[in-house]
Amino acid sequence: MDNIYIEYGFTVAPKKLGVEILIAELGVAGFESFVEHEAGVTAYIQKKDWNTKILNDISVLNSKEFAISFTEKEVAQTNWNSEWEKNFEQIQVDDLVSIRAPFHEDPQLKYDIVIEPKMSFGTGHHETTHMMVQHLINIDLEGKKTLDMGCGTGILAIFAEMKGAKPIDAIDIDTWCYLNSIENAARNECTQITVYEGDASLLVNKKYDVLIANINRNILLKDLNAYTNCLDTNGILLLSGFYKEDISIIDAAVSSYGLILEKTIERNNWVALKYQKV
Q: Environment class of residue 184 by beta-carbon count within 10 Å: exposed (0-12), middle (13-18) or buried (19+)?
């Protein structure tokens, strides 16, 4: 039997930044699929995960910077792959990394990542994923034990292996993301990635040279102790999933664990921070 979904059709103005923020906040609330359109975005959540107050904590809906309206209806399960194929465009990062679907032509860049996210967060289109790739481009990962925390599609773990990292752990609390990361790792012929389903509790007695966490701000702050405990001395911590306005909060928390902020990348008010443990 098909799953029943609740569909929200959002009209957003101005669109680009408004849709980025809206998708990020809806993802945290449990929405699992998004299809952008000319006027905004359509978002889907399984009815079993939905409640009448699901939008109460979506702060961008109350922002004076954006005009957002929406409609709501119940629908049967959608063919996410079909919808995604109609909307997913190939992207390139710094003319070095291509992120594309199997049906896209290979642009012959140095790194070619092929994924089928089926509408999962982490296609590279979101600002935070794009910035994390930029950070990883400039880090020597050869032989570095690496963790992709909140791996989504597995894209950052895949890129880390392409740059020589090993071994690599990828963790996500969502079952679908866990399975999709396994699929995408195999698609890219990765042999150094082990995918786990779970949360920061899996990090006990683990040690890494590089830790990547592209997650919601509140989760980052909650799990920061676990991240820093499993990071080796001189290890690198990459954090994203929050706005420029959150830097002071994040930096105060991370600095209290003895890490030093080395580099900040900003893209449309989203940021990605690079720290080193000393």
A: buried
Which tens digit of pLDDT belongs to each residue from 139-165?
Answer: 999 999 999 999 988 999 999 999 999
Q: Under DSSP, is residue 83 helix (H, G, I), strand (E, B) or coil?
A: helix
Q: How confident is the model at residue 262 (pLDDT cuts 50, 70, 90)?
A: very high
State the DSSP H helix or E strand holding residue 107, giving kind and residue range, or none if neither.
Answer: none
Q: Closest Cα partner for 65 from 110, 120, 13? A: 13
pTM score above 0.85 = no
Mean pLDDT of 16-25: 87
Measured in whole angstroms, how far is the alpha carbon of residue 151 from the centre of its chain? 7
Q: How far apart are CA 13 and CA 2, in angstroms?
A: 33
Yes or no: say if 96 and 137 are a contact pair by the CB < 8 Å rule: yes
Q: What is the pLDDT of residues 175-194, one digit of tens each?
A: 778 888 999 999 999 999 99
Closest CA to 79 of 108, 113, 44: 44
1.10.230.10, 1.10.1040.10, 3.30.70.930, 3.90.190.20: CATH of 4-78: 3.30.70.930
Stretch(es) of the chain classified as CATH 3.40.50.150: 86-277
Is 86-277 a CATH 3.40.50.300 domain?
Answer: no
- Beta strands 4-13; 67-76: pairing state: antiparallel
| One-letter amino acid of 135 | H
Place of tokens 């105060």: 252
pLDDT bracket for residue 33 (50, 70, 90)? confident
The amino acid present at 159, given as its one-letter code, is: F
Dihedral angle at the C-alpha atoms of 141, 152, 23, 89, nearest 10 degrees? Answer: 70
